[in-house]
Every structure is written in C-alpha cells, then in structure tokens.
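Subject: two folds for Thursday's group meeting

Dear M.,

Sorry for the delay on this. The cluster queue was jammed most of the week, so I only got both jobs back this morning. I'm pasting them in the order they finished. Each block is the input sequence followed by the predicted structure tokens. Could you check whether the formatting survives your parser before we put anything on slides? The first protein is the one we discussed after the seminar.
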Amino acid sequence: MVRIGIVAGEASGDLLGSHLIQALKQKRADIEFVGIAGPKMMGEGAHSLFPIERLSVRGYLEVIKHLFGLLRLRRQLLRHFLNDRLDLFIGIDAPDFNFWLEKKLKNKGIKTIHYVSPSIWAWRKGRINKIKKAVSHVLALFPFEPALYQEAGIPVTYVGHPLADILPMEPDVATAREGLKIKPYALVIAMLPGSRQSEVQQHADLFVKTAKLIYAENPNALFLVPLITRETRQIFELAIFHALEDLPIQILFGHAHDAMEAADVIIVASGTATLEAALLKKPMVITYRMSKLSWQLLKRMRLQPYVGLPNILAGKFVVPELLQDDSTPEKLAETALKLVSDLDQLTEIKAEFTKIHHSLRQNTAEKAATAILAYLK
C-alpha cells in the first residue's frame, strides 16, 4: 500500500484535494491518504487526524491567538507522519502551516509536493528561498506562476484551476433562479462574506447595512447569502436582527454556486469565491476588512495594486475593489448599483472573464495526478 500524507487548510483546499484524490485513485488503486482533510476529501476516502477547521484562521492577530494550538497540532502531525512512514507528502495551500511540515519531511528523505503556489507574486517574494528548501515540486494554478519557480530552480507544473474545468463557459441563470424560486423581475445580489467565522464577523454588519441601502434604492432587490456552517449563519442572523428592519435577505446553507449563478451582481470578500464569480462571468465588487494591525502589516508587504484574483489574472482592474477603510455600506451599495446598470462595463467584464476561463481550463486534476505519480515510480 502506498501512503500519502495530505494536509488541506480550508474549504477551497478541500475541493482541490477531493478532485486530486479521485484522479490519483483512478490511476493507482493502492494509495491511501492520511492527514488533515475536509468533508469532500473524506468523501473520497482520506482519513483526517484533526478537523480542518483547526487550520481555518486568517489575519495576523487571529493567527497569533491560535498560535500555540496550531504549533502543537503541527508537531503532533509530524510525529505521526514520521512514525508511520510516508511515501509522499502533499500540502494543499495553507503555506505557513505546510511549508514547515514539508521542510521537516523533505529533510527526512520524503518527497514533498505543494499544491497551490502561495501568492509570492502579490505579497512576499522573498519566500521563494524558503519554498525551495521545503518542496520537491510545486503545482501552480495560474499561468504566470511557473516562470517565478523556474528562475529559482524549483520544479514546477502549471495545472490550471479545477473550477475552470467544472464550470461551463455560459452560466445557466434561468435554471439557477428557478431552483431558488426567484421572481423574474428581482434584482438579485449575492453576498459572500467569507467562509471563516472571523471573516463573517468582520463583514456581516457591513453587508446587512449595504443591503439596507440598496433595498431603499431598489425595492425589487433580493439578497442571497450562502453560508456553510451553523456558526457563520448565527453571526449573520444576529447582524440582520440588529438592523431592526425587514430586509429581503435569504440565508442559504451552502449553495454558493447557485447564489452566484442566479445573481445580477455579487458583493464578495476577497478569496477563492472571487474566482468562481469570474468563471461564472459575473460583475462583482470585491471587498475585505480585517483588524487594523493586520491591515497595516499586510499593506506594507503588498506588491500589486489589486488583491482580487480576477484583477490579478487580468493584470488590471476589471472589477472594483473596496478594502478596509473604503469598505463602507455607502460605497458598496453605490458601486454595486452603478456596476449592474453600466451595460458597456458588463460586456467588457464578461469578455475578460471568458479569457481567464479559457486560460485556466487545463484538466487540472489529471495534470496534477500525472506530476505526482512521477514521484511514486
């Protein structure tokens, strides 16, 4: 039996991991996967030693709060992997957690694959030397990334993004709206405040106040808020309660794809959801709030003028970004309403996002599995 250690840190990594496990098992039936996995990876047979939620922490202050628990967990995981000899290790995203593990395992002679290049092109370019010591191979999701690794002498394979394989070139808006029982004349705004509790805590009140302003301008507005846990749902429901107003906000358990596909415009916290929105060819306003200290630290390290993946991939501001102090209910409401009414801009957005979709559609899981299996021969 071949044993592969695998660690994913959040929902987007769980999705990547599930497709990868499926593709690897189709080629080799004798592989077992153990580490930290989410529900999708476990559905494909991965054994999770700890809940994936333990790693789902974002922002410097938030990480500091959970630091000792994370360090202890990482040491426990390393001991397990070294005691129960691995043939290979795959770290899916979660770079601050996984690079330490990868370096320790690589020093013990275990091949290490890192799936999802960290954003060295956006934040911390100096990290590439740390990556070189930790990984045997990088699987890159975006087409501009391989050159950075080749220059540093790190083996790399561009594999594209699995969402580009899954999602059709043309979204089926009518079917999505029918499934959600939305009236044909409604102005549908999908609101995605993030997947982590800390993100929803930062954005819930902001999004509810934004909805209030949009609804005052357009009484046909309907707001869809997909959330994946009971805790995040409770946070958002509390923000609605504090608004002291009956707003047409529907909280959905999951169904983020349906909400985005049905939407006329999306207000979304920066992250993987922005990429899905782009692949669905949707106009969006990208926003993000974090603690003031985290923002000051991050701002100093930023190398590009944009943080949203759709803008980074296009190399320009295709959709607006309202971050931190610019992220106010007034600005979000005004920008979203202006965006959805500008037909020329909507046409341009769709064209740019179609180009991105074509460039990312690479049969990702198959390519990633092929690169990994080369290390198991």
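Second protein, same layout:
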Amino acid sequence: MRRSNFQDQPTDYAAVGATQAADLMQYPPDGYRPHEESIKIGSGDERFAAASASVLSWEVLRLAGITVASIERGSGDAYQGVRFAEDGTPIGRGTERTEDRFASDGTPYITSGTTAELSGRVGPYRVRGHIRVVYVVEEPRRVTFAFGTVSGHTISGEESFAIEKRDDDSVWFTVRAFVRAARPLYRIFPFLLMRRRRRLAAQYLRALSPAWARTVRD
C-alpha cells in the first residue's frame, strides 16, 4: 500500500471556503476565532495588477519572511471555492483561469488544490506546516485566494488574501482568517492565539505597503 503524504490529506478543518462569507466576523465557524485587517496600498490599474501578481505568486508571504517550499501545483478543479453574496448566501463556485502562468522567477501562479510547506519566523512567532489552497477567484476588480491548514501547524484554520480595486480607483489589500488552537500552549493561553494572528496579518499587510516596503525587505 502506498504511504500517504500531505498532498493526499484534506484540510484539518471542515468549513472550507468560509473566509469568503460576508458575515465571517459575526458568525465564524464553531470553535474558531475570526480576524480581518485591510490597508490601502495605492491606486490605479497598474497597482492593482502588480499587487494581484504578488498575491498569486506567493510573493506576499515571502516578503513577510515566510519560506514557501515543496509547491505542488493543483489542477484548479478540486478545492475550488464557493462564492458568497453580500448577505452571506452561497451563489456558486468561484471562477479561475486555467492556463499556466508563472512569476518572473519561474514560480507557478497559485491554483486551487495547490499544496505547499510554509516555514519561517515572524517576530517571536514560528510559522511551520503544510497548507492547501482551497480557492482562487480572479475577477476584473478583485483577486483573492485562500489556503487552509493540513498538518503540522500550531493553529488550525483558513486564511485569505484579497486585492480589490474600489470605485474611487483605490487599491486595497485585505487579510481574513478564522483560527483555533491546535497545540496546548494556545489552548492554555488563548489570548496568545489572537496576538499571533494580529502580528502575522500586520506583516502580510506591510509586505505590500509602499510605505513599509523597505522595512520588510531589509
């Protein structure tokens, strides 16, 4: 019998795709704590395109100090997320481009079902574990993807990264997540879970912020 590896494993939580729900902050999946932060990162079509490319090529994680390795590209079919209306009603599966695309360094763009291994340290917090991309949605004014935890993490849950071009031509970057403790430390001291969550979100936002770019890269 073939030995199972993490590419064969499902996410370790049930509410796959729930970071798209409009009411996530009010009604997170049972037992999970939600978090959301946004920042304006510029304006115009060029800024939207550049930020979208950074998100879809893992660059935002790398600029935040996280190594993305063992990337296994997904088919784009399994794990395609459900889209939600503003009132939280599911309205169908997300849309995703099917052609292969690559970043300037040869990294393939993220597709649904892609798996990877994350490692690194953000401030005092260690990041390590396997993840699976649970949805990718590309629309004319919004690009977003989310990954869910598979194994090896100190927390369990889902995290999404969205670039949005609003009606006033401004471009915004939003990080959303719902998490719960997967290790004893965070179960004993639950306040540390959200402190970690806020620090990670801030580092992601800074990675795409022109004002903080030099600090993140140095």
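Two things I noticed about the second structure. DSSP finds five helices and nine strands in the chain. The longest strand covers residues 125-139.

Cheers,
T.
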